[in-house]
Amino acid sequence: MLATQRPLSRQVSLSLVSALPCKHEDSVSARSHFCASREINLHPIDLAVVVAYVALITFVGIRFSQRVKTAKDFFLAGRSLTWWVIGLSIIGTNVDTNGYIGASGNAYSIGIAQANFEWIGAIPAMIIAALIFIPLYWRAGVYSIPEYLGLRYNAAVRVVSAAIVVVVSVFAMGIAMWALAVTLQTFIGWPIWLGILVSGTVVGLYSIAGGLAAVAITDSIQVCIMFVCGLIIVGIGISDAGGADSFASKLLAENPTHLSAYLPADHEGYPWHGVILGLGLVLSPAYWVGSQAILQRTLGAKTQWDASAGMMFAALAKTFVPLLIIFPGLLALVMVADIEYPDMALPWVIKNVLPVGVSGLMFVAIIAALQSSIDSSINSTALIITRDIRHVMMKNHNPEADLVIGRMLTLGLLLCAMGIAPFIGDLGGIFNFLQFLLSLFQGPLLALLLLGALTQRATASAGIITLASGVVLAGLLSWVLDMNLLFVAFFSFCYAVVALWTISGFTQPHSQEHLRNLTYSPWRDR
Length: 526
Prior knowledge:
Elements: H1 10-18, H2 28-31, H3 44-65, H4 71-76, H5 83-94, H6 97-110, H7 123-140, H8 145-152, H9 155-188, H10 192-241, H11 244-254, H12 272-290, H13 292-299, H14 304-318, H15 321-334, H16 345-352, H17 358-393, H18 402-424, H19 430-454, H20 460-479, H21 485-504
Helix pairs in contact: 1-9, 3-10, 3-17, 5-10, 5-13, 5-14, 5-17, 6-15, 6-17, 7-12, 7-14, 8-9, 9-10, 9-17, 9-18, 9-19, 9-20, 10-11, 10-15, 10-17, 10-18, 12-19, 12-21, 13-17, 15-16, 17-18, 19-20, 19-21, 20-21
């Protein structure tokens, strides 16, 4: 999850349950009004689409469970993933509830500047990951990013970075599970507890049984559904507006800045220089070169070429993602949607624009986006706990038990997320807290990865000191100075680079033999 993506707020999501729009006539003007009240009901065709989707991904999970014999099969799909599966799965993991509902809501508020979180905030860093970091991780032969950091620095860095990822992932899984339950309540009318129970059971069936292979294949299916639905919305929306030129004219008539690529420097949330410095230079690279949930697919590739090609394929697909997830927010503006909160833009479009059957497919796409963020986090977190915490803390661990332990941890993490989920709605600040947690460590983490990969100067002692002090500094910048999280990430990164480089000059480095497969020799320090 990228730290700067806009979260789905508690107030917005809960409002969806009580303020659902209803379908009127086919005209654009008629579609722009809500019903005073609406009985929650799903058309039988839409319901059939949902049931078919659930049956399909459950079948896929059970089918792939027959291939899981070892921990390597479970965590890395037996290193059997091809480039196109990797690419689609990466997109599925990245486009979660924030990327779908939140991005549409933000586009409703600020316009196409939201696309910067895909273009500036993804594509350049994805290319860097494909060409520089993925080959290095493969050469190191690691299962996880904390494992690479442990080899490059020391066990302390490995455990600390792993612990940070686990804590953030548990919060993220609980939020995604709650958002999924609210979505089910919004469209089907299920109580929250039933939505959590059913969705948790479905995710658990294929995640626990099939491991990474099942997760990757189901993510690929989910992404295809997302793209098809997104293209349908674009086609219907532009057609109803009278064409692309008419759509743009109607949008700019009331929202003259919504087609501006950048926001003013004094914008409270996303100033243009903050987007470039904080998002483009720090948060985006830290996510794409250091996110275990994303990179685990590349580590499970058949070959290193498949791993890098999969990331490049995902980068190509990313160029089209903004059109699919931002357009609904702009369409709601053009149709003068009577909505109380921006994040209601996408649900409004689904309810008022899409025909029967397609609306059910779009509902499935939202479920898919939420599920992909849950299953990916569960599998990657189970791997980190098993190998990067258990293996380090327990010197006499039995590697043959990793498969059983990994499945038990997957179940435990799923139950934990299901247990946390019902209380998320009562903790309105939990989303901002999650964003804050991410901004605390992404700057120092990126510094460790960059200097660790591109130089032999960085030392083990400097690594743990920089990671700990960088997190403290980020906390002070946020708490004491109340600094925008984009700038927190940028300044903590700058500090970490200087600190790591300086402290390394006074501490003992690893031998060149130890670093042979962990760094790039062209940047070797003499």
